[in-house]
Write a structure and sequence with these properties.
It is a single chain. This protein has 234 residues and is of the alpha/beta class. The chain has 7 helices and 10 strands. The strands form 2 sheets. A 6-stranded mixed β-sheet has the order 6-7-8-3-9-10, with helices on both faces. The chain starts with a strand and ends in a 7-residue tail after the last strand.
Length: 234
């Protein structure tokens, strides 16, 4: 059973009488626990597609099902609830809250999205701090840790709600070569441990080289698909 099924997805933006088709008939399927990259040059539609999968926007046409949910049918409030319970996000600029400690940044989604008891919040946050190797920095603030450490915290924060899916938009863009590889390996480890699907929007060859399934986008069209090892997931 696929985690994500897209059938002839279209996305069009209109400004007055001018329209621009950002996505042109994308069809694909992604299974649980996959490690997938959507690659292509700037303007190819990568971020637009992640926004649709992440329920931050809706397709103009076609059908998109994420975790057994037809996302087009969700209203704004339902979309927010669905995102909070099903999807984690990782960004290239980390998006950590500067006034919160490392621990508090990881705990925050549980406070905002779910009515999770304090003991459970503490248990989950500390378990992920340990998993990403940041337990000794838990009381530091974002401006007191390195870029690689910030992205480790961002990975932990994305996973704290036990999402089925994590979407990462250029997550290594602000990291040096060695640190980027460490973060990629961390995400693969988290995928194996939690059986979470990771989907990347990137043109970073480090991620492309580590992805198990690679979709190539060009001018809003799906131009290619490569499977490296493992099973083919459609």
């Amino acid at each position: 059973m696929s985690l994500i099924t897209a059938e002839n997805i279209q996305k069009e933006y209109r400004t007055g009488e001018v329209s621009m088709r950002a996505l042109k008939g994308l069809t694909f399927a992604i299974e649980p626990a996959s490690f997938v990259s959507f690659v292509g040059p700037s303007g190819s539609g990568k971020t637009t597609l992640l926004n649709l999968i992440g329920c931050l926007d809706k397709p103009t046409d076609g059908k998109l099902v994420v975790a057994d949910t037809d996302v087009q049918r969700l209203d704004r409030k339902q979309s927010a609830i669905f995102r909070g319970s099903t999807i984690g996000f990782i960004f290239q600029d980390f998006n950590l809250m500067p006034v919160l400690t490392v621990y508090e940044n990881i705990e925050y989604p549980l406070l905002m999205v779910r009515n999770t008891p304090p003991d459970e919040r503490k248990k989950r946050a500390n378990a992920l701090l340990q998993a990403v190797g940041m337990i000794e920095q838990k009381d530091k603030y974002p401006d007191q840790i390195s870029g690689g450490q910030k992205q480790r915290v961002a990975v932990a924060r994305a996973l704290v709600t036990n999402p089925k899916l994590v979407l990462a938009d250029e997550p290594t863009a602000n990291l040096d070569h060695a640190t980027a590889y460490m973060v990629i390996e961390l995400m693969k480890k988290m995928r194996d441990e939690f059986r979470t699907t990771f989907i990347f929007s990137t043109h970073d060859q480090k991620i492309v080289g580590e992805a198990e399934i690679i979709y190539t986008l060009e001018d809003g069209e799906l131009k290619g698909r490569q499977v490296k090892g493992g099973k083919d997931n459609g």
